[in-house]
Amino acid sequence: MTITNITTGEQAVTSTGAVTGVLSTATLATDFTLKVRVRGLAAGDNVLIAIEDTASASAFSDKTQIATINIVGGSNTNEGVVHNFRSYEVPTMRYGSTNDALRLNVLAISAGTATIYGWMES
Q: Which residue segment(s) compose the domain that 65 sits in?
């Protein structure tokens, strides 16, 4: 199994927008699992995250949301919550061609900070 980062390590996020880091999927040609971990949300805080892909030379000008995750903070703030998406659960994801890539994008966040980490296992 190979682990490849989508984000550039864990990222502390307090506002909407793309999370630092992009994973090229141009050479991907196998079964995979996308994983996103969110830590640090206080009770009542929430974050909505999209996994987006692109196939454009102008990266993400043609972005497509292939999955979304809505996390509400609570008792599991230190360990975090991990969401998994197997390749068959994201059938519209573009990969295996030039310029194909993935990123995480925070669509909404309430007060507070979310620590976000995304990776792929293949």
A: 3-121
Q: Element (H or E) spanning 13, and its range?
A: strand 11-13
Q: The domain spanning residue 86 has which CATH number?
A: 2.60.120.260
The reported pLDDT for the residue numbered 76 is 64
Calpha distance 23→104 (Å, rounded): 10
pLDDT at 75 over 80: no
Domain count, the chain: 1
Beta strands in 16-94 (DSSP E): 17-18, 23-24, 33-39, 46-54, 64-72, 81-86
Q: Is residue 68 within 8 Å of residue 36, measured between CB atoms?
A: no
Could you report the per-residue pLDDT of 90-105, keeping only the tens digit for each?
999 999 999 999 999 9
Going by the DSSP 8-state scheme, the letter that residue 6 receives in this structure is: S
